[in-house]
Amino acid sequence: MKAVGIVTEYNPFHNGHLYHIEQAKKLTGADVVIAVMSGNFVQRGEPAIFDKWTRAQVALQNGVDIVIELPTFFAVQPSHIFTEGAVKLLAAMGVEDIVFGSEHADVDFLTLAKNAPDVQLSKKSDAGNFKDKKQTFASAYAHELEMSTGFKLEDPNDILAFGYARAVSKLGLESQINLRPIQRMSAGYHDKTFTEDQKIASASSIRLALHKGKLEKLADVVPNETKALLSSSANTINFEQPFWQLLKYRLVTDTVGQLGQIYQMAEGLEHRLSAMALGEPGPQSYQSYIKAVKSKRYTFARIQRTLLYTLANIKVDQMQAAMQDAYLRVLGFTPLGQQYLNVTKKHLDLPLISKVDMSLAKSNLRLDYKAGKLWQMLATGDNVPQQDVSRVPILVEKEK
User: Fold this and answer.
1) Partner residues linked to 47 by β-bridges
2) Any idea which positions bind ATP (predicted)?
């Protein structure tokens, strides 16, 4: 069986995602669609509005055949680590193609990646001109890329596309995996609004409409399964205020030295975080705190991720160790996906995990387990289900 891979967050699943799946099948002629999906926290450092199991089920009801969790140590990261982690998992699953949306689908991203500036993205101290405090590292890198290739890398999906290409090249997968960009449809990645005649809206605009209680606006931009979830709002995230209360406790009680041990706490950021939290009268909300901390050097996403690492007490050595032990955590499959897994599991070069016990939760999956517990603390509704221990993959009989 031929498999195509896609990288997703589904926060929440909408018509644009449905189009993505349909195009992935059409372009590649694949029998099986494998989605690598962020777990309970997404790349920008925010909790997903529905848990990973709920989002996996909706994906399986709408054309995906296997959902693999992108572990926290890859999912909540800058784009170059996020994309490399996703490519690594999809390659291990034996996909022949990766299909992704792009604002410039005609660009040869693999060639672009090969001609990119040779900068160690994970080590800012090695970057020379990239230490300019007046701009973010991402902006500085995009400028250097434009100078060397003529391509301006600024649109979110193009940044991810470039990351996939860079990962394929770095991991030596050019003969194994074809990269297939498709033109992003209508809604922009960060669009906050959509019109009544639109059938595709951004996940950002859908979350905003949900937050404002305007569920009637969502009827035409999400499939029925998502519509039902949004209407029930059972076990969703009431994010900012409880998150801020927990985070503020950490920021106020931890010393600057303790904060300095947190992953990605570089360039004295711990001093800024502590000073802003301890100041008088002090920020009254999560958003006001981020705005107070924000500077030209740090993106909002960088700050949000660092704050999540702080709340979860994820230290540098813990993250680095976890990233060396990648695995394939199966969240769910269709009968066709199950058949594919039965054939391929004998040849996998990464551990395949279908059930988690406490021993595994405290070792290999310790960061995902911690993220799941934190998500449960932030979730609303009664009887929020366990996220890891004793959970088994979902089997969805319905196929589209």
Assistant:
1) 41
2) 7-20, 101, 157, 184
Task: Give 299-333 pLDDT, tens digit per residue.
Answer: 899 999 999 999 999 999 999 999 999 999 999 99
- Give the H/E segment covering residue 3: strand 3-8
Binding positions for ATP: 7-20, 101, 157, 184
Cβ partners under 8 Å of residue 70, min gap 6: 7, 36, 37, 38, 39, 82, 85, 86, 89
Q: Tell me: do 59 and 146 sit in the same domain.
A: yes
Select from 321, 349, 368 the last residue of a domain.
Answer: 321
CA-closest candidate to residue 227, choices 384, 12, 388, 25: 12
Binding residues: 7-20, 101, 157, 184
For the record, the structure tokens of 317 come out as 């050595």
The pLDDT tens digits of the residues spanning 26-81 come to 999 999 999 999 999 999 999 999 999 999 999 999 999 999 999 999 999 999 99
Which tens digit of pLDDT belongs to each residue from 257-290? 999 999 999 989 999 999 999 988 888 899 999 9
- What is the pTM assigned to this prediction? 0.92
User: Is residue 90 domain-shared with residue 165, that is, in the same domain?
Assistant: yes
Q: Are residues 300 and 330 both part of a single domain?
A: no
Whether the bond between 78 and the residue before it is cis, its omega within 30 degrees of 0, is no
Residue 220's pLDDT is what?
87
Is residue 133 located within the same domain as residue 19? yes
pLDDT at 124 over 80: no
Is 200 a member of any domain? no
Rounded-to-5 percentages of helix, strand, coil across the chain: 50, 10, 40
DSSP category for residue 184? P
> Structure tokens of 368?
């995902």
CATH, residue 371: 3.40.50.620
CA distance 388 to 339: 24
